[in-house]
Amino acid sequence: xxxxxxxxxxNLVDKAMKNLPLETPSFxxxxxxxxxxxxxxxxVISAYKPILxxxxxxxxxxxxxxxxxxxxxxxxxxxxxxxxxxxKQIYISKFSNITNGLNYSKTTMYAAVALFLAMLVQIPIIxxxxxxx
Length: 133
Description:
The protein is mostly helical and 133 residues long. The protein is built from 5 helices and no strands.
C-alpha cells in the first residue's frame, strides 16, 4: 500500500519537475561566495584556565601549614578537657549516638557505593575531555 503511495507521489513530482527550467548559478557565483568567506572573522580559541589557579592553592597550603605550625609550636600550656575521662571515648560516644538511629538497606548502600565509584571514574574522564587530551 505504501509502495503505491510512493509511486504516485514520485510520478507527481516527476510531472512537476518536467515543466520547470533548469536553474544555473550566475557567472560570478563562486567568486562572490569566496569573498564572503574571506570577510568572516576567525574564532579565537582561548587557552584553558583552571577555575582556581595554582597561586590560590599555594597560598591556601601556606596558610594551612602556618596554622598547623602555630598551633603545634605555640607556647600555650595544654590543659585537659576533662579530668579522668578519655577524650576519645567522648568523641566515639557522640558519633555512635548520631549513627544509632540510621538504618540503611543493603540496596541503598550498594547504590551509594556505586554512585561514589562512578563519580570517581568520571572525574578524570571529564577533566581529560575538557583539556583536549
